Amino acid sequence: MRRLVDLWPILLLLLLWQLWVSTAGYSSIVLVSPGAVFSDLLRFPGAYLLPALHTLAFALGGLAVGMAAGLILAIAAWFSEFLAGITTPFALLLSSTPVVCLIPIVARLFGYEGRTELIAVAVMTFFPSFVLCAAGLKDLPAMSPDVFKVLRATRWLTLRLLALPAALPQLAAALRVGATYSVLVALVAEYLMQTGGLGTLFAVTMQQFHLARALGASLLAMALSVILYELTRALEQRVITYYR
Amino acid sequence: MKPRSFFYPLLGCLLLLGAWELLGRSGALGKTLPALSQVLSVFLDAPRRALLLRSAAATLGSAAIGYAAGACAGAAVAVLAHLVPILRGGLDRMAVLVNALPVIALGPILIITAGREDTPAALASVPVFFLLYISTGLGLRATSHRLDLMFTTLGAGRWQRLMKLESVAALPSILSGMKIAAGSAMIGAIVGEWFGAPTGLGIVVLNSMENFQIPLLWATVIVIAAITLASYGLLTLAERAARRRIG
């Protein structure tokens, strides 16, 4: 109940939108009401289903590849100080540049195809994954590295029994950051390259002035992103409470 | 700082730039990866430099307008929620939701409400608004409880406590939010331009992508990265200064 009451800003926005439409009296080429958008969503679910699945599949597929690659490189950097050092500028540069703007370059490098979308998502979720995993592997409980050293644990054993478990909260955080990122990058790639999915759906329907469908696709994309975010956030919370 | 911890990152930079130059010259990845020198020569070409400068001014303008509007509104709403706690639950929830929204999905909505020309600024302001709302709220609540009690004992009213104590204590957190928001504002402005703005760096990126002007495409992305890094760096310095003074 409390959570439902907390949704008032969204309802307020929808109400303002509806009021604006009914007072302004524009034609449906210029402006549609939230009611029209929702009825399009409900009446033609088939038009949205495949694009939504397309976006979801590419976002999750790319996320899996990007997360795995980030973790592997973070482990490699954990083993080698040299590698950790030379990868620092890459990590710094790419975590503070707007990587979304790199998508056109990725598109040109790999062609306007589905695989480019997958590569774009993987590349852009790789960076948060690498940065957070690398930080997590170094953030060990106080004195614990000394215990492992005194007991003459090998580097490999230390990784498996100490660093990796200690990094789990950061891994979960990386997943949460990456999950919302993956939907954003998938949508931008679809919008720019028109390879299918919700991004293409709203690019195409905007050009046809089919606003109800364009806004429906955009709302669906938002819902997808929010659901992924909430799921990964819940996972992160569980990991954190488990660690306390 | 250990000399090694400085040396390796430098080596990493040089390796990256060297590998880029060599890969570009060898043409292993076709025409889409031009050599670094080729990309930099774009900046020496007067007409293209003028184009980039003009577009950068347009993008920076809309990003700055969106940034300023979003930041002021976000901070103001956070203060309101701080003074009227009943609003907080809903606004917090909304902030989390908007934080998870892909900016590009807001494009179609903003084109209708704000128009094509103002979409970049509007799209820049949305993430900034919520980042500033969150960081200001966190900062206001981070005020030391003992100081708060002292102010109250000495007869400070709600308004005086807000202006003289809480807003000062919130400054480091606000600046940290502004630091993160700078990048979001640039992304918002550029994605907003993709929805049909007349000029801007986002338009140059799109056009050079579609017309195979690859060195120009890379040069534009470098300009975007430089702007973002510079603003990020400046705000990091401001945040550090504030943390030193206020802590």
Please trace the helix and strand order of chain B, writing H or E for each element. HHHHHHHHHHH
As for the number of domains of chain A, it is: 1
| N-C termini distance of chain B | 23 Å
Biggest interface goes to: A-B, 55 and 56 residues
What class would the helix/strand composition of chain A place it in? mainly alpha
Rounded mean pLDDT of chain A is: 84
How much helicity do the residues of chain A have?
over 70%
Q: State the CATH class of chain B.
A: Mainly Alpha
Mean pLDDT over all positions of chain B: 85
Q: How many distinct helices of chain B?
A: 11
Instruction: Report the biggest beta sheet of chain A as strand number plus sense, adding barrel if it closes.
Output: none
Query: How big is the Rg of chain A?
Result: 22 Å
Oligomer: heterodimer
The chain-level structural class of chain B is mainly alpha
CATH topology descriptor of chain B? MetI-like fold
Level-2 CATH architecture of chain A: Orthogonal Bundle
How are the elements arranged and paired?
The complex is a heterodimer of chains A (244) and B (247).
Chain A: H1 2-5, H2 8-24, H3 34-43, H4 45-79, H5 81-96, H6 103-110, H7 114-138, H8 144-150, H9 155-193, H10 198-207, H11 211-243
Helix pairs in contact in A: 3-11, 4-5, 4-7, 4-9, 4-10, 4-11, 5-7, 6-7, 7-9, 9-10, 9-11, 10-11
Chain B: H1 3-26, H2 36-41, H3 46-83, H4 88-99, H5 103-114, H6 119-141, H7 145-153, H8 158-169, H9 171-193, H10 201-210, H11 214-246
Helix pairs in contact in B: 3-6, 3-9, 3-10, 3-11, 4-6, 5-6, 6-9, 9-11, 10-11
